Amino acid sequence: MTHMMRACSALIAVALGLVVAAAPATAQNAPQCVVSGVPSGWGVNSTGYIQIDSGGSCMFSVNIAGEILSSSVSQNPAHGTLQQLNVSSFLYTSQAGYRGGDAFSVQATGKSQTSSGASIITINATLQ
Q1: How far apart are CA 72 and CA 105, in angstroms?
Q2: Domain 25-127 in this protein, CATH class
């Protein structure tokens, strides 16, 4: 390989790396949100907390024991987006350049051996 071909290959690799690095997160490559707080049972509301980089994404899963019958976004975030992926998973993407607090809520209905009903799960996010 000539010096010119190596230089062109290096430039292409750098350009491709920049494109991959700049690509928005998708559900397939987004990490799980690390949620602190205690999940409740069905029919009881709960609150959780996450920290995420400004412009970052993570997947949030409804983690209440039992069967999830339905779910929906009940409050959209003010400084990001929340996309429902399926009955138990949501993709949160924080607003690039914003640092501070954000919040969103998900309503889920389900049942277990000990409880049933609708629960609202509010997530308070700190964007760093």
Answers
A1: 9
A2: mainly beta
